[in-house]
Amino acid sequence: MNRQGLLIAIVLGFAVGIIIIQPLGISLFQYDQSGDTGNWWYLFKNAVGQALGFGDVDQILKNILFGIMGSSLALMFYTRKTIFQLNREKVGITLIRELLDKGENHEVEFKSTLRWDLRQGKVNKALEMVVAKTIAGFMNTEGGHLIIGVDDEGRILGLEQDYGTLKKPGKDGFEQYIMQLVSFNLGTHFCPLAKVTFYQFEEKDICYVRVYKSQKPVYLNLGDRSHFFIRTGNGTRELDMPEALDYMETHLN
């Protein structure tokens, strides 16, 4: 949790409690006591003036009380998002562990890297096409889970070597590169079907791509022609034209 952001939220909440919550509560009470007659806005402005005046000990104590109330509300609002993110991350980590334990299948694929060739020790563009092929295969079948940064056995390798090959190293650059890969090779309109998330295991980042099924055929553009892939077993297979047409008629709208 960001300490600076937390401190700012507490201070702002304290101020809001004094100059907004307190005058609002007091003016509404006074307006109700008068039988809902008179000028509420005048009562509110008068209450604001009293709150800012710090005229006596009672007023100072009321300011402290409402300031604490405002800080508490701000703290609740600030931590709500953080707690939600932590819970979502916990659920995500549990899912990843389950996928790693089950191993590769028709809905799960592991990739050691996105573009760094571990054997050759350099960038290999062919590896990017393998990832694009896998994503296309998932989209043309029932969707699936692509995890980058683990070997075929589900052992954690991390993304550090891939990070070092990017113009913008780190998670943001990695995600942008994957989305560019989908956009350039499959089509920009298919990008919403690939959701990228990062998790940390053994102090190493891994990339989880949740791929959703497409209602339209997805082609991988390679060279001067388009290729149609589907997911079969724990692999991705290309269909020739007659097979692809038959498959589309049966499985895609």
TrEMBL record:
The keyword Metal-binding does not apply. InterPro entries: Schlafen_AlbA_2_dom, Schlafen_AlbA_2_dom_sf. The chain crosses the membrane at residues 7-31, 60-78. It comes from the Bacteria. Keywords: ATP-binding, Membrane, Nucleotide-binding, Transmembrane, Transmembrane helix. It holds the Pfam family SLFN_AlbA_2. This is ATP-binding protein.
